[in-house]
Amino acid sequence: MSQRPLRYAPDPATWDDEDRPYRAYSREELQRQLDGYDAVLSDAGDDGDGSDPSGSRDSTFRTVLRWGMRGLAAVIVLLVIAIGWLAVTAPLSRSLKPPTPPSITLLASDGTPIARRGAILGAPVDASKLPPHVREAFVAIEDRRFYSHWGIDPRGILRAAWHNVGAGGVREGGSTITQQLAKNAFLDSDRTAARKIREVMIAFWLEAWLSKDEILSRYLSNVYFGDNVYGLTAAAKHYFGRAPERLNVGQAAMLAGLVKAPSRLAPTTNLAGARKREAVVVGAMVDAGFLTPAEGRAVQPQRVLASRPQQLPSGTYFADWVLPEARDQAGEINTETTVRTTLDPELQRQAERVIRQAGLRQAQAALVAMRTDGQVVAMVGGRSYADSPFNRAVQAKRQPGSTFKLFVYLAAMRAGMTPSSTVDDSPVEIAGWKPRNDDGRYLGEISLARAFARSSNVAAARLTQQVGVKQVIKAARDLGITTPIPNEATIGLGTSEVSLLELTAAYAGIANGSYPIVPRGLKDVKGKGWYESLTSRTRRIPENVQDEMKSLLGSSLRGTGREARLTVDAYGKTGTSQSGRDAWFIGFAGDLVVGVWVGNDDNTPNPGLHGGGIPAQIWRNFMVSALDIAPVRAPVVVDEDAADPEAVENMAEIPDMSEAVDRAVDGAVDGAVGQAGDRLRDIGIDLRRGEDGSITVSPTRGRDRTPPPPPRDDRRPPDDDGGEE
């Protein structure tokens, strides 16, 4: 054996004090000792083949140790990552939140419920304070070893797998209560291996941080029991009319049995199935030792409430519109809440009635009624919500026809004109566009009041050109119109699309004397933020401009809107798009502003339909009921082409008795002719009574037709008739 070189043998003279014990050894002696150590080690490891296995063993040990440390480090890293993932994706606080948005019950302005949306949730329960038999019912049927496992139950999984194999399919699950809480609170319903792994990890996470009673409490507070009811508190009240603490054994067993198939076993619709499941749960409680056999036999089939609580509609046109705002106002809620709205139940019933009685045939209709400050008190978005929940009062964007002339005349009043100012009612050409009055008549120089009353198209086109398209657009924006408005002269005839709700709110601005009026459906409006306050300031309309606009709107009811006349001061405007595709009447009287739209969803023509017909009649009938006023028996009929409507109304007459009798007879005849004319007009026939008492029947000439908007790829205005109203 070769000598091992002495690796450390310095000169003893240079040794430090701590090396003193070794100074007695010479360099040669130290070398001999080292050689002896090497010989001993060599003999101890000699296996007879001349190899040196000690080095190999040391190398293997070091390799195993090195990989073991690496594995441990990897496990630690993965554990940290898993904990971080769980902390982010499965915060414990989420298990306290309901698995679905809680229900909001909308109340009318008088406090009566009108609709409920969302799940019925009860207050959280504390499992430690529940009677033992309530806890035991759920544990016996859902997770018998709940108090002994660590989130998963291997025995339960194997048992379920064995039963499923025997049944030839999935018939039984092996999820523990902890796993069910993990699934309900944190995961979706996908049936994938990855989701199952996440479920197991979250179950371990919950078991590590929560006590058994905390896990059971959160589970019972959010589990689904059918009938859109979540949580033990809500289920006990819904099915038995009592608190969870007062449930008897049979009631607790029935509720525990619902968890397996809540929709199918809900006792309100399947009492027999719920009772069979109750018996299964009672048997499980006996098997688990929670009940004695005698106590199990003593449990009777349970009864639920004799009648279900009053079922409110989950949706109406008004409820669909106001719900997002109601949830914003309610904020983050964990239990059922109520929100008071502005809806007036009586006015809503009247609105639905007049729509039903309007004789619409295949057409649809919408109505919005609001106070002058924007509080919506009635809303009908169609003939039947059950058949079509599409809200035509809010969601539909249609051409407003001559109702848009409100903004043209408002811009004119702002520019210094008055109702007595004049405008040329004669044919005009604007950049290749030739608007025409539908009846083909042109009256020359007329007052703005008369032009508005007869809804002259050429007058509106000339005014738009005179005050400027931008000023008309500004008037519309000021009064709250948010839909796109093209920078074209044709907008004065109502070629841009708007919603009934926005247009009605714009008319409310004139009635209120301020703008913009924002439609709202909640009684209590939360305070605005500073930015919203700066950007949505309410401005006053100058008193003289408001009076002038009301004068114009009043003259319209003596012209194209004569069918909407009331026995009180009323103001409004008719509107019709081309071929009767859209017919409108929007106006106000008293403290109500009401808009009505009639048309087809597919935008097909309605021959004979115009704003001064069915929409004006719907508006009038609603106002008569809403304001509780007497109807107009013999409305003044104005020939708008022969005389100024205001002149007819202001003519003074001193009648004698014979004239009074004549007027009474004429009024009765006019009333009868008017009613027959209304019906015939809907089918395209015009029935009129002349001054000499003769009756004339002729095809209807559209009253308020507005051309469709020009093609967007051709910026030239349309060269057609335009709309009358």
UniProtKB/TrEMBL annotation:
GO terms for molecular function: penicillin binding; peptidoglycan glycosyltransferase activity; serine-type D-Ala-D-Ala carboxypeptidase activity. Pathway: Cell wall biogenesis; peptidoglycan biosynthesis. GO terms for cellular component: outer membrane-bounded periplasmic space. Gene3D superfamilies: Biosynthetic peptidoglycan transglycosylase-like (1.10.3810.10), DD-peptidase/beta-lactamase superfamily (3.40.710.10). The keyword Disulfide bond does not apply. Residues 366-623 form the Penicillin-binding protein transpeptidase domain. One of its GO terms (biological process) is regulation of cell shape. The chain crosses the membrane at residues 67-88. Keywords: Carboxypeptidase, Cell shape, Cell wall biogenesis/degradation, Glycosyltransferase, Hydrolase, Membrane, Multifunctional enzyme, Peptidoglycan synthesis, Protease, Transferase, Transmembrane, Transmembrane helix. In the C-terminal section; belongs to the transpeptidase family. This is Penicillin-binding protein 1A. It comes from Sphingomonas gellani.
